[in-house]
Inverse folding.
């Protein structure tokens, strides 16, 4: 593969999608990525039903954070194909606590009021434990979330094990799922088996 030739879609579209995650002048400052192997940044966020969820509540359990924006073509690919719901169900059955986070600000792509978000969750058949609302983008900045879906794995001790793409196919085409190497599944399988990620 010639890495010097990057297509517009590969290079620019994820940046445009990520731009919808935050708003406000403080959001323009780039935050450093949290360090793999170090404690995951703590947070507390409300879900779409108004219940609060703190990361600390899940100490002792495996946690996946999924940055979600139903307007993103990459998210649509994973939900319309049932790929994301399949992962949520598979790892949920293994005890993984899967939390989707919406860091879109009011008036930006991906932002929906809680009732509308609940309707969308029902339509797609979401299997995540909860959808958390981060309209200020504060938690997104803590994790340096720049695109959707961005995936994070946190181990039972609260350490950050993975923070990045869901797979190796940065394409919005559903056909790209065939033969894709799913980074999230590989990292979870390795970590849960006691192997290095």
């Amino acid at each position: 593969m010639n890495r010097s030739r990057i297509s517009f879609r590969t290079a620019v579209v994820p940046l445009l999608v990520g731009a919808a995650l935050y708003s406000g002048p403080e959001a323009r400052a780039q935050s450093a990525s949290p360090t793999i192997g170090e404690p995951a940044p703590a947070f507390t966020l409300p879900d779409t039903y108004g219940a609060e969820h703190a990361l600390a509540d899940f100490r002792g359990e495996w946690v996946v954070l999924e940055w979600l924006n139903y307007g993103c073509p990459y998210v649509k690919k994973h939900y319309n194909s049932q790929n994301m719901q399949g992962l949520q169900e598979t790892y949920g059955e293994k005890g993984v606590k899967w939390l989707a986070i919406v860091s879109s600000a009011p008036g930006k792509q991906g932002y929906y009021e809680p009732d509308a978000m609940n309707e969308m969750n029902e339509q797609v058949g979401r299997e995540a434990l909860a959808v958390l609302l981060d309209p200020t983008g504060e938690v997104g900045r803590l994790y340096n979330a720049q695109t959707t879906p961005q995936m994070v794995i946190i181990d039972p001790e609260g350490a950050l094990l993975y923070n990045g793409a869901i797979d190796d196919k940065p394409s919005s085409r559903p056909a790209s799922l065939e033969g894709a190497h799913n980074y999230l599944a590989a990292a979870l399988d390795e970590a849960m088996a006691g192997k290095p990620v």
User: Anything to note?
Assistant: Residues 1-30 have pLDDT under 50 and may be disordered. The chain has six helices and seven strands.
